Amino acid sequence: MSSGYILYVTGIQFTALENPWKSARLRYRAEGISKMATRSSRRSLQVSASPSIAPWSPGQSSVATLSERVYRAFKRDIIHAVYQPGEALSEKDLADRYKGSRTPVREAAVRLQNERLLRIVPNRGYFVAQITVQVLNDIYEFRSAVECAAAELAAHKPVDSALFQKLNELSEITCSPDDRESCIRFIEADTLFHTSIARLSRNQMLLQAVSEARSQMERIMFAAIDINYYGEVPAREHREILKAIQERDPERARQRMYEHIVQSKDKVLGLTGFSLRGT
Questions:
Q1: End-to-end CA, the chain
Q2: Which residues have a Cβ under 8 Å from the Cβ of 38 and sit 6 or more positions away?
Q3: How far apart are CA 85 and CA 133, in angstroms?
Q4: Can you give the pLDDT at residue 231?
Q5: What are the residues whose beta carbons fall under 8 Å from the beta carbon of 79, sequence distance 6 or more?
Q6: In the predicted structure, residue 79 carries a pLDDT above the cut 60
């Protein structure tokens, strides 16, 4: 197989399998998004909107504009595999779906293209971005750079006790491979864990970078639910990262985060039979 082999947003294709989560994606599409909103409202660990859905920016109003609401909903649907990889999307259909005019859809599309979640082709329309092996490698290299730096910096900074307590709680959330709901809760908790480590660094640029990386990771994680990617939840790895930060050991915090990211990459690539080590 060549390095251009495609890992689709809604699933990682195998030679021996025929898109094993296709039926799950169609089931999710039929159920709609309302169940996701209900789950989110009942979460016991209340935080501001997930950075992967709507990263905070200076001057942002607490009441989302129509353009911001369309952006959030459109981004969520891409991440949650409501749209197929490479799927052509009609601007009119998107405006109808998100109950807005074409202008906020266009604004959202430009933002999502900048985040590598959508592709805008002049005179043809919008296409959901695909994830190639090379892009997957880029994601993990980017994560290693920014998240290791965030962990190291967090160990230098005074500990935010309230946030640290929340991190401990998040690190204990588990899931069962045969329980989709628990896997979704784990994905949400995992995103909050990693973005909260970035918050501990007290560096807004690192937080923004980690949030961008999590958008890409969530696409992979939602796709992987139905192929038992979550057979092992990294609670121990999370606890070791937290321990290094709490003990103010920057070098160990960086190393534990690096090991955690490498293990995640190896598991994802193991599902496809590829190895990116040394590439």
A1: 15
A2: none
A3: 14
A4: 55
A5: 52, 53, 117, 215, 218, 219, 222
A6: yes
pLDDT tens per residue across span 104-139: 999 999 999 999 999 999 989 999 998 888 888 999
Determine the pLDDT at residue 226: 65
Size of the chain, expressed as the number of residues it contains:
279
- How far lies 84's CA from each of 7, 10, 21, 121, 160, in Å? 12, 6, 12, 17, 41
Domains and CATH numbers, the chain: 6-131 (1.10.10.10), 133-270 (1.20.120.530)
Q: Which amino acid is at 111?
A: R
Task: Report the alpha-carbon distance of residue 18 to residue 263 in Å, rounded.
Answer: 26
DSSP string, 56-115: --TT--SS--HHHHHHHHHHHHHHTTSSPTT-EE-HHHHHHHTTS-HHHHHHHHHHHHHT
